[in-house]
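Appendix C: a fully annotated inverse folding record. The material below is reproduced so that readers can follow the format used throughout the book. The structure is listed first as tokens, followed by the designed sequence.
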């Protein structure tokens, strides 16, 4: 495999050697090591323990931005409806929920792998769940709640 450098960053990782003039890179060099595209797509980096740690933290951060945790499992913040439209769970769906209604929750994946969150079906809404969602909405608006003195 070949690496293509531009401004001291690896911007290409390819099977064929690259011509610096054609690809507007500073240099090309052979490597027998495995490289991966950084999660922010800024450059290729060596696939090693440092990358794995960075990648795991990135996946966890992305997951927690897309989901929030409840006693019933993780809830997707933006829900795709059957008609392909999207709705915000906390502001659009939560006000219509009632105790005993079925709901889909998710399990947290292993962020150290490419595992995706798995769905939990057969879960029903409880009053505790509704209260947790109300608290999440307040936390999103005001920031993390603090214990009162």
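Designed amino acids, in order:
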């Amino acid at each position: 495999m070949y690496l293509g450098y531009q401004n001291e960053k690896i911007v290409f990782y390819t099977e064929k050697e690259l011509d610096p003039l054609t690809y507007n890179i500073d240099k090309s060099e052979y490597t027998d090591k495995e490289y991966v595209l950084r999660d922010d797509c800024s450059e290729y980096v060596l696939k090693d323990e440092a990358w794995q740690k960075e990648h795991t933290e990135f996946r966890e951060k992305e997951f927690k931005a897309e989901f929030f945790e409840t006693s019933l499992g993780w809830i997707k913040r933006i829900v795709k409806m059957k008609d392909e439209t999207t709705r915000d769970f906390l502001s659009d769906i939560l006000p219509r929920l009632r105790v005993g209604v079925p709901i889909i929750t998710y399990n947290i994946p292993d962020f150290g792998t490419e595992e995706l969150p798995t769905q939990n079906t057969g879960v029903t809404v409880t009053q505790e769940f509704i209260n947790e969602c109300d608290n999440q909405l307040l936390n999103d608006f005001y920031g993390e709640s603090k214990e009162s003195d």
